[in-house]
Amino acid sequence: MKGGFIPMFFIMGVTQGRKNFDYNQMVVCGHCGSYGRYQVYMTYMCLSLFFIPCLKWNRQYYVQSTCCNTVYSLAPEIGKQIARGENIEILPEHLIQVQAGYKSAS
After folding, report:
1. Reduced to 3 states, what is the DSSP secondary structure of residue 81?
2. Residues with Cβ within 8 Å of residue 49, at least 6 apart in sequence
3. Rounded CA gap, 59 and 80, in Å?
4. Residues 6+ apart with CB under 8 A from 83
5. CA 78, CA 87: separation in Å to the nearest integer?
6. Alpha carbon distance 101, 72 (integer Å)
7. 20 to 30 Å CA-CA from 22: which of 2, 5, 32, 83?
8. pTM of the full predicted structure?
9. Distances from the Cα of 72 to the Cαs of 29, 47, 48, 102, in angstroms?
10. Which residues partner with 96 through β-bridges?
11. Residue 70 contacts by C-beta under 8 Å, 6 or more apart in sequence?
12. Left, alpha or beta for 67 (phi > 0: left; psi -120 to 50: alpha)?
């Protein structure tokens, strides 16, 4: 029998990733009233072929306060600017609270 079946194997996977950005902004927290700073990170889904990341999608940007760990969703356009390394100030209108921190203002 000429010509045979040659098996081909593809190793692929879909994973969720997180990337922390080098961003620090000192703030008075709107949730607990303490002095802290914002930490910015991005979450995403990633398709890998042969363990090499090929495609990222569903990028979402978040801000976490260091004083009470409240998490906010960050406006995508602001998140993209921070990802590019631009020095930009995060304003309250850029944030939507998604998870309350462990303490609140008394």
Report:
1. helix
2. 10, 11, 12
3. 10
4. 21, 42, 61
5. 10
6. 10
7. 32
8. 0.82
9. 11, 26, 29, 14
10. 73
11. 29, 31, 32, 64, 97, 99, 100, 101
12. alpha
On whether the CB atoms of residues 58 and 47 are closer than 8 A, the answer is no
Query: What value, to the nearest 5°, has the Cα angle with vertex 83 and ends 62 and 47?
Result: 80
* Chain position carrying tokens 């999608």: 57
Query: Would you state the structure tokens that stand for residue 33, as one six-digit string?
Result: 């009233």
Residue 14 is encoded by which pair of tokens?
Answer: 């879909």
DSSP line for 15-46: EEEEEE----EEEE-TTT--EEEEEEEEEEEE
Residue 34 tokens read as: 């303490």
- Token pair in block for residue 84: 């590019």
Nearest CA among 43, 42, 53, 26 for reference residue 83 = 42
Per-residue pLDDT band for 2 (boundaries 50, 70, 90) equals low
